[in-house]
Write the structure tokens for this entry.
Amino acid sequence: MTFARIAGTGSYLPPRVVTNDELAARLDTSDAWIRGRTGIRQRHIAEDSQASSDLALEASRRALEAAGLGAADLDLIVVATSTPDFVFPSTACLLQAKLGVRDCPAFDLQAVCSGFVYALATADSFIRNRIAKNALVVGAEVYSRILDWNDRATCVLFGDGAGAVVLAAAEHPGVHASVLHADGSQAGILSVPGNVCGGRIVGSPFLQMQGGQVFKLAVKVLDEVARETLAAAAMRVEDVDWLIPHQANLRILEATAKRLGVARERLVVTVDHHANTSAASVPLALDEFVRAGRIKPGHRVMLQGVGGGFTWGASLVTM
Ligand code: UT7
């Protein structure tokens, strides 16, 4: 049997850091409110000249280097993003060109903050079915472009960044199991409900969220999907070395770990310094802990996404 394993990780954060105090200087908010309600103390914001494909390129180069592979070795590129460079072509195609290669299939996947887990499950399936051997799976976002910077209820929550993994064919897993879900009836609680039509933006081009509803649903489904994924992999919560939920809010992360019975030391938290980077949050957190030597080869990691759609999912992997 063929399985897929993570052969290398990489990430990139644009250099500009925006602190809570900087936001409080021009908005009716405070560092104390933002930290107390979300755990966030800063976020990285891309330069105007940087698009998702640029952030993705840096993260991808680092993941390829860590995997000991070149771009020419790739036979699949999947980019999870809700902030693509253009309506089309896909950010994945733009990334492929920036990596200096051609031919391999490349496509974007839109599952908002669950995007990376959806993309990982998709690439895993390609590899298990021997359609690909070396897949680049990326989450890349410039949420700063879709935020209303006068709306204190949303703009303080998000940041920009990219994370990537190279998923390679292997004799042993790797990815043990993935479980994905969606509930389109909840589309309205988190959305950017605008579109381009006749040369104009019709509807709102800004992120809108019913924060309380998203919060409650997120805690519920992150708990459920972790248990489903453990069952699919025939493992127990004690078998998990690290829990990496989508980095939306420290209170969501801690509530999820508590419900699952995962000790605080095994919960990966980067939301404090990255804020919510949507599809990029999970691979960014993974790469940070891998490079810090905390997540080591052989460790079992539960990766979890949840967000707009409404979508959610999890993958259990051995590094
Ligand atoms: O990636 C997945 C998507 N996002 C999420 O997972 C986010 C999920 N939701 C959350 O994280 C939380 O619901 C929030 C952090 C967004 C909000 O926290 P909350 O504890 O649910 O607060 P709230 O929305 O109930 O607002 C409480 C108060 C309100 O004032 P009133 O009506 O009680 O007078 C808000 O107007 O806090 C006010 N408020 C703020 N105050 C200072 C909202 N935003 C701010 C702000 N600064 N930035």
Summary: The first strand starts at residue 3 and ends at 12. The mean pLDDT is 98.
